[in-house]
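ok here's the first one, seq then struct tokens
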Amino acid sequence: MRLGLVCFAFLVAAPLSLVAQPSLPQMVAAGDVTTDSAVLWARVSSKGPVLFRVIGRGTPPPRVHNAHFVVKDPTIPANVEISGLQDGTTYDYTVSAPSGESLHGTFRTPAAVGRRGLHFGVSGDWRGELAPYPSVKNAAGRDLDFFVEHGDTIYADVPSPAVPVSQASTLAEFRAKHAEVYSTIRGLNTLGELRASTAVFAMIDDHEVTDNFAGGASPSSDPRFSAFPGAFINDTPLYRNGVRAFHEYNPIRAETYPPSADARTSGKPRLYRYRTFGDDAALFLLDARSFRDTELVDANPFSQLDVRRFLFQSFDLTSAPPRTLLGAPQLADLKRDLLDAKARGITWKFVLVPEPIQNLGILFAADRYEGYARERTELLSFVKANAIDNVVFVTADIHGSVINNLTYQIAPGQPQIPTNSFEVVTGPIAFDAPLGPTVVGFASSLGLVSPPQKAFYDSLPVANDPDSVVNDKDDFLKSLLNSQLTPFGYDTVGLAGSPVNATLESGDYIAAHTYGWTEFEIDPVTQRLTVTTWGIPWYTEAQMAANPAAIIGQTPSVVSRFHVVPQ
């Protein structure tokens, strides 16, 4: 474990109301690293000067870097950029609060060239009322090069102890939501420890603002935004407050799109990131929320006519201009940078999109890339046409892990065109309920699962295994999902029999009844990629309140593991 000692001062003998608050209540963090820079972050509980002190490991040790920040409002974290760093180097840093108390953390800068291997983690989707988060308890000790906070890092539209309202709207409420999830609760702060143990990259999805919003749409298209001025939802105060608080509470370099003719992106926050890690890997971090067009109306699965309507609209066979999920400038950046990674001989390309890109069926498809099928085809066909190998899409949002190879169509009903790309959907850190019980419950309400089938599902254990025999809850869900995929000619769940040279080592290619995170590790010699899903049994807020020791005491275990040999 690379996390340093933490020193908090408490007035133990004083009455509870007089107990001193920690000077660094959300601990410290570093992130948005490049080969020669990093952003350091801390929130202090009082006004005054904050000192950031950074020193690299090695012989001889690199020079010491100091940065100062004067806090005028304790609700706004200190955020500084340190430049002039060495690539491929581990750095220790200390943050000293105005009180004199300090915490320390560590991060690594990416290597500029060479194969050194890479080791990182990804997860998303955690709600404040389910804190703390034992599902990532082991992540800080895994010696990661970085961790990606992959969207829905708060649920601004769900009440929690810090903000017990149905929708955060003021900047103060959004800030309180972020402070809540990174605070020590019941004596545990797994996210704070994780953020202090390695560099982090952070991306928004919808719940940093509100459920299923489309930033590139007109405010008049959504009653939650219609009272606000602005040409786009990403011009409105609700969006701006949510994204500002997200920026403030994560170690992110402030970037904006340059002035351009594209009004939906011109001058707006630019969260897209392209980072390379030697010759091992490239990371492409995408904002799939701020510039998207209005989502389609979801299809009625019992109406063939309405399903046909949805599929044709998703391929933009009649709309002009074509609908976009990413926005034209961001899609262009991604294509350019994918070609750059290929030209540089980088082995693995990890494209991180908050919502799944694999076809998961017609139910609730409007919010996923399936609802923007024309752009999905454009992106996947670009990867195939340019022979960009070893592309892994890493996504979140659906509150369960589902792994599949990727195919695309030119139009509805046309043949599936295979690619050698695949997707890893990471499960939630803490969302009640996760994918499995949510999908089965909804399918039951629609009559797609009969009462005897539902009772059978309820009787099954959570026991991840590699077969498809329906003797555990994940196999039941896999069978249900596959029954919805095959009528459309979509690939069934998993990598077996696909162009991806994958071997399942443990568990299955689906894990939808646990909370946890996903670990990616590239071997420096063979470049083999190993993907491990860690998890604990999912829990409810009521279960946490009734027996917190039992929930907090859980340690993540391996739920699924497979490896892939690169092309």
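and now the second one, same deal
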Amino acid sequence: MAKNLLETINSPADVKKLAERDLPQLAQEVRNELVRVLSADNPKSVGGHLGPNLGVVELTIAMHRVFSTPSDKFVFDVSHQGYVHKMLTGRRERFDTIRQYEGLNGFLLRSESEHDCYGAGHAGTALSAALGMAVGRDLRGGDEHVVCVAGDAALTCGVSYEALNNAAEQTRRFIVVLNDNEWSIAKNVGAIATYLNRIATHPTYSHLHEKASHFVKMIGGQFALDLAHKMEAGVKNLLLPSVIFEELGLRYYGPIDGHDIPLLIKTFQFLKTQNEPVILHILTQKGRGYAPAIEKPDKFHGLGKFEPKTGATKPTASPTFSEIFGRALSKFAEQNNRLVAITAAMPTGTGLVSFAEAHPTRYFDVGIAEEHAALFACGLAVQGFKPFLAIYSTFMQRAYDMIVHDMALQNLNIALCMDRGGLSGDDGPTHHGLFDIGYLRHIPNLVFCTPKDEAEFVDMLWTMNHYVGGPIAIRYPRGVGTGAKPADQPRLLEIGKSEVVRHGTTQPARVALFGLGAMCSMAEAAAVMLEARGISAAVINPRWIKPLDTGTLEFYGRSVEVICTFEDHVLHNGYGCSVMEHFSEEGIAVPIVRVGWPDQFVEHGSVEVLRSKHGLTAESAVERILALLPEKTVEVPVVRA
């Protein structure tokens, strides 16, 4: 039996020690480990980004073979494809803890390893950051290499072009690897994807490129170097008078096979000698080496625990909020021909796959371009359409200026649908949607709601569909809720009116619990605990973050002894903060307990573990409420002799 090479890799130096002929075996062992750790074969698995990492195995091995981290810098766009890098940089023995509480993060973190020079979790950041690092190196007189690895999906981000526009003028040594697998999370869209595909598939280019690759492999002095340059330029000029990368000042090489380790090594060795910004276009296969991931690249981009032989995942007992969203919107669009749906490269994640199938002419995937998506929605709204813009809460941050300057200022009828509002669990701080209340509730003209369960979610979407007063936003959690089945005919909700879920066992109640959105169930659990102690507690489902239901707030603020707010959001500038502001303005001095996330970036881990650690539990809320409740004195009757 062949020796297990992966078990000998404890640092990048160990990759360099292997014979080149052994590297394909190492690549296969890495793939085996990826499937094992992320699948049900690992009892602790919570899944992860399998497809992207299977596609960059050879690339990562070749990079560590040629370059030397941490002195040389690798900047991965998004960094969800950094699992192989983690394995090769001293974290192999902890790899089975990935995305688990207190285990390895699913993205690169500067605090996790000296080999992670730059953290990420969102797309399009790598080119600008890497260029800044290259310029910083130049300013301090360093000689290390800066290698930026960006997928072709990064070229759907406007910020990537802002970096490319500056690269040639600001540094002379900069290596960009364009990892072209035609996918981001979904199939890439737009002119750039078509452009790259044209380069990769042109038969004349393919034929001549083999000759160009031969010269790269046979580098031997200035003559061969010049000849390789001339041949590359000649091939590109034959195809296109102006190649976009060359026009931006980056010398373009490729496309080459991103799974050919010897070719990658030779090419990187060549690129190390170049004194100009270069871009290497490599072609890879997302999910390489694992049939289920190749057959369903979107599913295996990021998924939970799966059965390794078939790739099957355990279905959820109830549909997720995302799935309900897509189905409901599809149904509404049958009655409203002005309804359109927009996403930023997340048709599966946002549940819009079903809408795209039912209404293809009214579905728009703009790529990883949230700013454009928001402005595009504004243009559609000006033409009388009702855009539903579906973007994760953590990604909606990227369109903030457009929400303020274009949507709200012009009071356009746009529905902002923020999936993953609240903790995103295993994905960690780059994906937690814990800031959207704070960045939206103060914007004039904007209405903002959040549902307690799936049935109310559809009612809110129906209300948003009919709302014509300007921009309206909704936040909803990842995964499934209580399982409440939506009604066949949704109802219109009154804007700014909350729901009293329970009035308390006696009147007036001593405590009022305001459970925002999915946290309403936690408020109900706290009420049960309080009433078991003989303390009457009312539970209110606020529904509306903006406008506040001031009437209900003031009623309970003046009649109870303690108010408690629950929210799946940071406490700073959150829902509880808005309640405190209103009470302060009205002179209501009732004590308030606020349950929510602290002023820090919350780590990754299961929702249950993290809520327990940070005090977002019914038990913790009850303890804090009891500490504020005044003791009730009991009058003992006097017995006279």
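notes on #2: The longest strand covers residues 562-570. The chain has three domains: 6-206+243-291, 321-475, 499-628.
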